[in-house]
Structure formats: C-alpha cells, structure tokens
Write a structure and sequence with these properties.
Layout: H1 8-22, E1 29-31, H2 39-47, H3 51-54, E2 73-75, E3 92-95, H4 98-104, E4 113-118, H5 127-137, E5 142-145, H6 148-158, E6 164-165, E7 187-191, H7 200-210, E8 218-223, E9 237-241, H8 248-253, E10 257-260, H9 269-276, E11 281-284, H10 289-292, E12 298-301, H11 306-318, H12 321-336, H13 340-353
Parallel strand pairs: 1-2, 3-4, 4-5, 5-6, 7-8, 7-10, 8-9, 10-11, 11-12
Helix pairs in contact: 7-11, 9-12
C-alpha cells in the first residue's frame, strides 16, 4: 500500500488486516515511506495548520490507521517501488493503489495470488497518469471494487473486467447513537478539508443558501485541516480540529442533517458514519451515495448543485418531526444492517475462489 496515513482508504486496509488476523489468518502489511513535501506543498500545509505533515522528513515512520491497528506492518526505508524481497511468501497478495498494483504484477508466484482492491478510479492526475491507471486496470489479476457505482464507472470506460464488489462498512461499535428527536434549532454538519476535492466550499455555499429559508440553522464541521481565509467556514460554524475517534459518534449525533458534497470520492465513508449515528444525509451522486441515499435515509441531489444541496437541507429540517424521526431510524437501520464482519466474510469468499 502507499504510505500509511489517516485517510479513509487506509482505514479500510487497516480494518481488513485487523479482522483477518482476528480470524486466525497471518497478515503482513507493507507500506511505502511517506514523501517529504516539496516547499510549495509545505507552505500550503503550514497555512492549513498541518505542522507535522509540513515538517515531516522523507522516510519518516508514518502514524496512520495501519500503525494503530495492531497488525504486523513494515515501512520501506524510503519512497520507492515495493520489491519481492520486501514481501513474505503468501497465499494472497493485495494491492490497494494503482501504482502498487502495477508493482505487484511483477511479483513471483510465491508471493501469492494477485488481488487489486479498487478504492477509486484513480485517474485524477489526468494525462499520462490516466493512461497508466487504465493500463494497470487491464492487467490480469483479481479485482475487487468497494461499490457497485465504482465498478460501473470503471467498466463504462474499459468494458467488463470481471470485477467482484465488496462494499465498505463502518465500525458499528464506534458509530452508533440512541434514538433522538430533531434539534431546535436544527444543525447541519460536514467534513472540512482545505481542498476542492472534498467539497467543503460547496457545503458552505449550500448552508448560506439554506439560511435564507432557515435563518436559525446552525453548522458544525470537523476535519484534519485548519480553516483559512482562502477556504473559510460558513458564518457561525462550530469547528472541531482533528477530533479523537471516540468523539466522532457524538459529533455526528449533534447534527440533524449531514452534508456530503465531494467532487471526487471512491466511497464516502462519512455518509455511512453519519447514518449509523441516526443522522439523515443530503449528498451528491458521488462514490457510494447512489447506493446509500434514498427517500427513506436522506436526499440524493442528482444535479449536484449548491442550490440542490440547500433545498435538501431545508426539506429535511422543515418536514414534520415524526417524519424526520422515521428517516433517522431508517438511516440507522441501513447502516447497521451491514458490518465490517459481513464485509470480511464477503472478501474471504472472493479470496477462496482463487484457490478453487
């Protein structure tokens, strides 16, 4: 895998590694050393308050989801391609990023059957990167996508690749909340990130539009980046910087509506996390949102506009309290109907087919 960090994709890898180990499988995670940011990137990180990332030396030991999962893991001494000598002999070898999947293809058979865990259509760089990603996806190996929508997106470009689908889940012990009534005044929440990708600017615009009809609407945001003047929060927004994992459920449960406005996202775990905490979601049609958001669990904004997001906020905050309560219950039930143990069962079923 790439360098260990606190991204959602690495949380998925760490969770599978931990659960497979708990079932008696021998697991070894090999991750790349983190790059030292260039001076322009360091300047951006410093402006966002990400001091540790900005000052990190090349090859520094990462502190991400995998390092905290309690599984054996090895960090390369510097950023470079993974080689056969870095890996133990195994039954299965899993790559979680397109570059690692390309390196995996040259590994000897002793390293295991090759599996590409697809957590996104990773063509974001455009140009040569797009072609390299597509060439990598055509390599002969077992492919597992984390959502039906991701599978459809890739195969719309490349044709059928024989992909399996194993949807992501969330930690249902961490993300849970008791039944509650809608708050008064209502609160809308979202993830803040100092980047256009996660769409926190769209959330800000949607909240400001919604306040034309709901002037009492409050806002809550949390994230790993500190807000800046160039990338501000909505007015009168409470912000929590880098909350502890144990705080997350309480933060989600303080919200009556959760906003998901990512421009690019392989899945959108915050959708499931919010639903698991009984918070209906208003979201754009990105990642797994089309599979998760229905009229019973929230609102899917098909046109993806700020005005559409605002209309969803207003509708959920203005509907009768008993209707919101039912929606909150349906969101909770949908999220809690599928656990990481269920996902691990499905993953193992796919892996077992490789040895039939």
């Amino acid at each position: 895998m790439p360098a260990d960090d606190l991204t959602g994709g690495n949380r998925v890898v760490a969770t599978y590694a931990r659960l497979l180990q708990a079932r008696g499988h021998r697991v070894q995670v090999v991750c790349n050393a983190p790059d030292r940011p260039g001076w322009r990137q360091r300047l951006r990180l410093l402006r966002r308050g990400a001091w540790q990332q900005a000052c990190r030396p090349a090859g520094a030991v990462p502190s991400g989801h995998v390092s905290r999962a309690g599984v054996p893991f090895h960090v390369l001494e510097r950023p470079r391609p993974v080689r056969a000598a870095d890996l133990p002999d195994a039954d299965v070898l899993v790559a979680s990023w397109w570059e690692t999947a390309r390196w995996m293809q040259d590994m000897p058979a002793s390293k295991g059957c090759k599996v590409h865990l697809l957590q996104g259509y990773e063509t974001w760089g455009g140009g040569d990167v797009r072609q390299q990603v597509q060439d990598t996806l055509r390599l002969p190996n077992c492919k597992i996508a984390i959502s039906e929508s991701l599978k459809r997106e890739i195969e719309a470009d490349l044709g059928s690749l024989g992909m399996f689908v194993v949807p992501n889940a969330v930690d249902l012990q961490l993300f849970d909340a008791p039944p509650r009534q809608r708050g008064m005044p209502p609160v809308v929440g979202f993830i803040y990130a100092g980047s256009p990708v996660k769409g926190s600017d769209r959330c800000r615009q949607a909240i400001e539009l919604a306040r034309r009809d709901l002037p009492e609407l409050r806002a809550l945001a949390f994230g790993a980046d500190l807000p800046t003047a160039d990338w501000p929060l909505p007015a009168d927004c409470r912000f929590v910087h880098r909350p502890e994992q144990a705080q997350l459920a309480a933060l989600y449960a303080q919200c009556d509506v959760w906003l998901f406005a990512s421009r690019l996202d392989s899945f959108g775990l915050p959708i499931l996390e919010a639903m698991a905490c009984r918070t209906p979601v208003v979201g754009v049609s990105v990642g797994a949102a089309p599979e998760l958001l229905t009229a019973e669990t929230g609102c899917l904004v098909a046109d993806g506009t700020d005005a559409g997001l605002a209309a969803g906020i207003v509708r959920l905050c203005s509907q009768p309290p008993e209707q919101w309560f039912r929606m909150s219950g349906h969101a909770h039930a949908k999220a809690h109907a599928y656990s990481w143990d269920d996902a691990t069962d499905r993953l193992l079923q796919v892996l077992e087919t490789l040895h039939d």
